[in-house]
Amino acid sequence: MLRRIARSPKALWSLVALGGIVAAAIFGPSFWNATPTFGDFGNIMAFPSPEHPLGTDSLGRDTLARLLTGLRVTLVVALFVEVINVALGVTVGLLAAYYGGVIDQLLSRVTDLLFAFPGLLFAILIAGVFGPAVSETYGGMGRLMLTTGALALIGWPMMARYVRGMVLSLKSSQFAEAASAMGAGDAYIMRNVLLRNAVGMVAVTATLDISGVIISEATLSLLGLGIQQPAASLGLMINDARSYIGTNFTQVLFPGLVIVALVLVFSFLGDGLRDVLDPKSR
Amino acid sequence: MLRFVTARLLNMVFVLVGVSLLTFLVGHLAPGDPILILLGNNKSPELYAQIKAAYGLDRPFVEQFAKFAWRALHGDFGLSYVQQGQAVTDILARGVPVSLQIGGLALLCTLAVAVPLGTIAAVRSNTWFDNLIVSIALALYAVPNFILAPLLLSVDIALYRRGLPSLPVAGWGTPAHLVLPVLVYSLGSSAYLVRLTRNSVLEVLREDYVRTARAKGLSNRAVNARHVVRNSLIPIVTYVGPSVAFLVSGSFVIEYMFAIPGIGYLAVQSLYQRDFPVVQGITVSLAAAVVVMNLITDISYAILDPRVRYG
Q1: How far, CA to CA in Å, does B267 sit from each of B55, B67, B70, B194?
Q2: In terms of C-beta density within 10 A (0-12 exposed, 13-18 middle, 19 or more buried), how is residue B175 classed?
Q3: A216-236 pLDDT, tens digit each
Q4: Considering the entire predicted model, what is its pTM?
Q5: Given this model, what pLDDT does residue A75 score?
Q6: If pLDDT is split at 50, 70 and 90, which confidence band does B57 have?
Q7: Alpha carbons within 13 A on the beta-carbon side of B266
Q8: For residue B302, what pLDDT is reported?
Q9: B234-280, pLDDT tens digit by residue?
Q10: Which residues have a Cβ under 8 Å from the Cβ of B278 and sit 6 or more positions away?
Q11: CB-based contact B195:B178 (threshold 8 Å)
């Protein structure tokens, strides 16, 4: 598996880039010792300088420090949303496709319902309605969890539908029939036959989906409904800086570049993984 | 076909009732008392009870919802909490045309640019033109609209400072106000639609009937115009159908960034102000638009592709 990834330059390079970004998020804040919430009021909306390598925001806070902690927030939210999407999506999609009947009906009703909300609307609704109260009671961490939950809520049905379709086609394959003819039980077939064959493409879909989750989180925070001050989030930083775009465009540019890099890395990684894992393209 | 449409219509009713219930429930469970906000500084208990009764908030949940659903069916979403004395429907009626203008223009621009470019890129696949289009589309796809908008604004402001012709940075009213939001909107959606069109055309080019058409001696131009383009329209319809509903919602971000008083801006503002009747009205009417457009999309498949028959 690893050897196959190593042979695909696309997968390999995006994995290396992702490793770099994750390392920056984990270790960056301890290397760059500026406090992300400290306001250097003598240096407001500053351009890059030796003292502040990426400049400062409208409160004089160091942009590099905020970018590194914001990157943490983005990656944590994206990771948790995707884990919930995959866990829920695979379970529900697998059961719905394997057993059909009531579970399948229920799944398609729920997905119909959630797909009727255009775009981020339902996440915006949940995050916006419950946000202020959650912030008041549980603070920043609560708000982070609410944002994650709202994004997972609109994300998992897509994954469930995808898994359902894939399992349906695997179920009618000859190796699944062979397993059941040899007397394998439902649990065995689901785990060892269907799931094992689906896991690669689920990984590809989840990786490609992370790009979308990153943009959605930034959008929620930008609209003031996600991560709140004084915490940092890439979307929040862009929203703060866009009022000063006429005086200093670098403060939109830097968090923007980080988002673009993240989106590209996950898209390339997903494409690369597909080349490696998709049995049809081998 | 008739049976298919009936089944879909029944499903539509289910979805709309579900969406209304979900939206209403969210508003009902929302922390904070809207009446206290309405009262402002005058917190007399009598007035409180009176206003609560006027909005019907003293009734049990089921009755409140039944009333809400019944009124919604008649296009009445009640009164706004914040903009006092204003019907939600009137507030919506001011926002929808604004979003429709922005979204409609953006959709037209997107189609006019993306479909021809995607088709040409596919027909001339693996030439410099194709590579250029694909790279630009990928680059634009990776730059979300909330990054593109401020960066374009900074260029615009720089032009203004130098006394060169420039565009208004935000607001609504003149045709000049339309340019930047429509540009940002269409650049983003073109990036996606170009790739979709290109893939769709590439797929059709490999079909047997295209080979047959070439074999019987039709010119390249005739094959492309008569066989390829028409058949690759189907995935494009899948995109355009739902996006008509999405464009009413405007892009929340674009309306927010350019301070355009459309539905998306209104939804976010009403959430800030906890004006739930407006939020509910917007959500339910947008969901209705999505569901109707999806139905129209499915029906248009049958018209565009004779192989599709709904039993």
Answers
A1: 21, 22, 22, 30
A2: exposed
A3: 999 889 888 888 878 888 888
A4: 0.86
A5: 92
A6: confident
A7: 30
A8: 73
A9: 778 777 776 766 665 557 888 888 888 888 888 888 888 888 888 88
A10: B77, B80, B81, B82, B83, B88, B91, B92, B266, B267, B270
A11: no
B264 contacts on A by Cβ (under 8 Å): none
Mean pLDDT in residue range A239-258: 83
d(CA B255, CA B270): 14
User: If 0-12 CB within 10 Å is exposed, 13-18 middle and 19+ buried, where does residue B59 land?
Assistant: middle
Residue with tokens 């374009």: B152
Q: Is residue B250 left, alpha or beta, with left meaning phi > 0 and alpha meaning psi from -120 to 50? A: left
Contact B107, B244 (CB under 8 A): yes
- Cβ-nearest to A129 among B15, B30, B147: B30
Nearest chain B residue (CA) to A250? B151
To 10 degrees, what angle do helices A121-171 and A101-115 make?
150
pLDDT at residue A49 greater than cutoff 80: no
User: Which residues are CB-contacts of A75 (< 8 A; sequence separation ≥ 6)?
Assistant: A21, A22, A25
CB–CB contact A218 B271 (8 Å): no
Q: Tell me the two tokens of residue B154.
A: 């900074």
SS3 B44: coil
Tell me which amino acid residue A165 is: G
Which of A10, A112, A153 would best serve as a mutation to test chain B binding (most B beta carbons within 10 A)? A112
Q: Considering only the beta carbons, identify the residue of A113, A115, A223 that sits closest to B252.
A: A223
Report the gap between the CA of A190 and the closest CA in chain B (Å): 30
Write out the two tokens for B181. 């939001």
Quote the ipTM score.
0.83
Q: Is the pLDDT of residue B308 over 80?
A: no
Tokens of B111: 């189609």
Average pLDDT of the residues in B133-155: 86
Contacts of B26 in chain A (CB under 8 A): 125-126, 129
**CA dist B40 → A133, B46, B270 (Å):** 19, 14, 17
pLDDT-derived band at A77 (thresholds 50, 70, 90) equals very high
> What average pLDDT does range A113-130 have in this prediction?
86
Q: In chain B, what is the straight-line distance between the N-terminal and C-terminal CA atoms, in Å?
A: 6
Min Cα distance B293 → chain A (Å) is 10
Tell if the CB–CB gap between B271 and A124 is shorter than 8 Å. Answer: yes
Task: Give a three-class secondary structure readout of B83-120.
Answer: CCCCEHHHHHHHHHHHHHHHHHHHHHHHHHHHHHHHHH
Q: How far apart are CA A207 and CA B169, in angstroms?
A: 36
Residue A111 and residue A153 in contact, taking contact as beta carbons nearer than 8 Å: no
Mean pLDDT of chain B: 81
- List chain A residues with CB under 8 Å of B31: 130, 132-133
Is A133 near chain B, with CB under 8 Å? yes
